[in-house]
User: Fold this.
Amino acid sequence: MASTKGKKRRFALIVFLILLIPCLIWIHWANTSIQVTEININSEKIPEAFHGFRIVQVSDLHNTEFAESQSTLLSFIKNAVPDLIAVTGDLIDSRFTDMEIAMEFIHGVTDIAPVYYVTGNHEARTDEYSKLAEQLEQAGVVILNDESIEIEHGSEAIRLMGVNDPDFTAQGDADAEDAYVMDAKLKAMLTGESTYTVLLSHRPELFDVYADNNIDLVLSGHAHGGQFRLPFVGGLVAPDQGFFPQYSEGVYEKSRTKMVVSRGLGNSIFPIRINNPPELVVITLT
Assistant:
């Protein structure tokens, strides 16, 4: 009898390992293989000179490395042939900030196209942000710190705006204050001629504020795709949105505003993704 029980246990262990090993391989592959998502954004406001203009969005890298010297990630970006590269926050991770890894990516990507950057909540949490900002500017990155600039292409231009993450200023009731502060920032920047406007902002949960200010296109991240994506349900949990987040990945539309939410490339508190590969977003204006 004891021998029979021992054989059953050994058989069960073998079956468990047979199932576990492919599962671990799949999880590793799904967390290291970059998915490129192509998105076309159409609007009558987009100037003719910007037809076919390509923006690569890099979000939530969190000091993640994709091969030596970020060669895999840089290869994907280069193959996308971008006119502009938008980094929408959390380039670093506040829990284990590695400036060398962050700048390794930056030095590679600035050789491909102009790079524009806004902060995320992890930049707000670390004492090393001022050092990072200095190195980014030295590398040629344009940091949009609650700023609006013109991007020229051919003989025409669009407006590119970028906002600092709310965690740099938030106190008290964060949700209410975030919306109030964001609304004030956008109103201060939206002056002058009404041109096609692209906003870089880390936080997708403030979509209503962006729409109320008639922003044409918002590029956001922060939600990590909901970390674990369930079939027919979507993302499971996201920062500042909780369980079953409303804005976790893809394109959202309200009134005249479209918002692209990247699933991001790295992980933070949760070390793995499930059914949610790292994402590089490539946007074409038409």
The chain has two domains: 1-32, 36-285. Residues 49 and 155 are 7 Å apart (CA to CA). The helical segments are 2-32, 71-79, 99-109, 121-125, 129-138, 174-189, 207-212. The chain has seven helices and 16 strands.
